[in-house]
Amino acid sequence: MLNATWLDTFTTLCEVGHFTRTADLLGMTQPGVSQHLNKLASQVGKPLILKDGKSFTLTPAGEAVLAIGTARRQQERALQDAIQVDRPDVGEISIGCSGSFAMWLYPHLLNRMQHAPELVINVTAAPHGGIVTSVLSGDFDLGVIAEPINHPRLEAVALGREELCLVVPRSLAGQTFDLQMLNDLGFVAHPDGYAYANDLFSLNFPKDYKGADRLRVRTFVNQIGQIPMPVAQGLGYTILPKSGVDAFTNKQDVAIIRLPQKHYHDLWMIARKGRSEIARVAAVSDFIMQHKAR
Question: Which PROSITE patterns match (predicted)?
Answer without folding.
Answer: HTH_LYSR
